[in-house]
């Protein structure tokens, strides 16, 4: 025990707090586990010194009210509350890493960190400086309403981003498609917007409030494979069974499509002019659908040519002319 004299414990707490800050910065952000261990050690030692010295960080100091001792008392408590916040934040970051949360979880993490810092700031104001926190909170509420009205659109983007993150509609790296036809891979999510990288290598920045109002189709769920349907019209000069076999040989010869589940050849329609066929196949990801479709078209051309099949004209390009109208003559004036 340090006895009634708390001057030495205050000095020791300040030294431990400052040393903890220096070591915390030396550890760097690339070593979160080591940073957390060091933070726990310093926070535990500071708490032990507070307990042995009979110092309560949650009550204003009634012994030292002025001079160097008062300054040491307030700085010691501020450092203790700061290290408490850093320790809690360290546990949150480790929890996120151990559970392998997606990178977009930084929105929820940032929100939790903001709440922790706000709580610590209010605790320092109330417990260290003895100021009325209730009055401060009421005043802050009025200011928050004013800022809320002024930043209505921005706050809408922020809360929409939180809702999208909690709903897990998509993750970093997923291919998504919006109702308006916009399509791309999610490369970044922030408090205000979501960035998509399109197939044309352009970055589309979508405010979260607009994104939340649109229907989003996640092309990467439940897996990355993507179904492609290619329609072909073959001239009706061969039996449908032969056409089907040729189409299957086209799909078997492809090296860019997924063979499990196996591709499908569907004969969708037949008339006097053409047999309509739909080739249904999957690719590993949306990014390679164009090369895969190009390969199928090239193989289709070669196989049809080798098998004696001909491509038919599109149905909408066919024009049927009405039969010529024969001129009618009266019975008495018909030519002999």
UniProtKB/TrEMBL annotation:
4Fe-4S listed as a keyword: no
Entry keyword Transport: yes
Subunit structure: Homoheptamer.
Described purpose of this protein according to its UniProt entry: Mechanosensitive channel that participates in the regulation of osmotic pressure changes within the cell, opening in response to stretch forces in the membrane lipid bilayer, without the need for other proteins. Contributes to normal resistance to hypoosmotic shock. Forms an ion channel of 1.0 nanosiemens conductance with a slight preference for anions.
Membrane disposition: Multi-pass membrane protein
A family per Pfam: MS_channel_2nd
InterPro entries for the chain: cNMP-bd_ion_channel, LSM_dom_sf, MscS_archaea/bacteria_type, MscS_beta-dom_sf, MscS_channel_2nd, MscS_channel_C_sf
A GO CC term attached to the entry: plasma membrane
Similarity remark: Belongs to the MscS (TC 1.A.23) family.
Residues spanning the membrane: 6-24, 36-58, 78-96, 108-129, 135-151
GO MF assignments: mechanosensitive monoatomic ion channel activity
Entry's localization field: Cell inner membrane; Cell membrane
Classification lineage: Bacteria, Pseudomonadati, Pseudomonadota, Alphaproteobacteria, Hyphomicrobiales
Annotated Mechanosensitive ion channel MscS domain residues: 154-221
Entry-linked PANTHER family: SMALL-CONDUCTANCE MECHANOSENSITIVE CHANNEL
SUPFAM superfamilies: Mechanosensitive channel protein MscS (YggB), C-terminal domain, Sm-like ribonucleoproteins
Residues annotated as signal peptide: none
Keywords from the named record: Cell inner membrane, Cell membrane, Ion channel, Ion transport, Membrane, Transmembrane, Transmembrane helix, Transport
Protein name as it appears in the record: Small-conductance mechanosensitive channel
């Amino acid at each position: 025990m340090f006895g009634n004299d708390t001057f030495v414990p205050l000095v020791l707490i300040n030294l431990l707090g400052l040393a903890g800050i220096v070591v915390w910065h030396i550890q760097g952000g690339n070593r979160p586990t080591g940073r957390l261990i060091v933070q726990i050690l310093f926070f535990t030692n500071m708490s032990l010194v507070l307990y042995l010295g009979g110092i309560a960080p949650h009550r204003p100091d009634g012994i030292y009210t002025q001079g160097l001792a008062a300054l040491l008392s307030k700085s010691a408590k501020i450092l203790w509350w700061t290290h408490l916040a850093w320790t809690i934040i360290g546990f949150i970051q480790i929890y996120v890493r151990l559970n392998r949360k997606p990178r977009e979880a930084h929105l929820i993490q940032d929100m939790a960190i903001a709440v922790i810092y706000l709580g610590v700031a209010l605790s320092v104001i109330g417990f260290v400086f003895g100021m009325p926190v209730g009055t401060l909170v009421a005043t802050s509420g009025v200011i928050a309403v004013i800022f809320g009205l002024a930043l209505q659109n921005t706050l809408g983007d922020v809360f929409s981003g939180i809702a999208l993150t909690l709903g897990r509609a998509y993750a970093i790296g997923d291919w998504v498609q919006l109702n308006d036809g916009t399509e791309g891979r999610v490369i970044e999510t922030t408090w205000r917007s979501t960035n998509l990288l399109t197939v044309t290598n352009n970055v589309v920045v979508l405010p979260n409030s607009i994104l939340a109002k649109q229907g989003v189709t996640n092309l990467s769920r439940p897996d990355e494979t993507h179904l492609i349907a290619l329609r072909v019209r073959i001239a009706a000069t061969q039996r449908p069974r032969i056409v089907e076999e040729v189409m299957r040989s086209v799909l078997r010869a492809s090296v860019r499509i997924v063979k499990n589940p196996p591709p499908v050849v569907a004969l969708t329609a037949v008339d006097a002019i053409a047999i309509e066929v739909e080739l249904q196949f999957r690719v590993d990801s949306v990014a390679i659908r164009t090369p895969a479709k190009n390969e199928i078209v090239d193989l289709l051309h070669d196989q049809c040519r080798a098998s004696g099949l001909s491509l038919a004209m599109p149905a909408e390009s066919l024009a049927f002319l009405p039969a010529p109208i024969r001129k009618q003559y009266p019975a008495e004036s018909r030519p002999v």
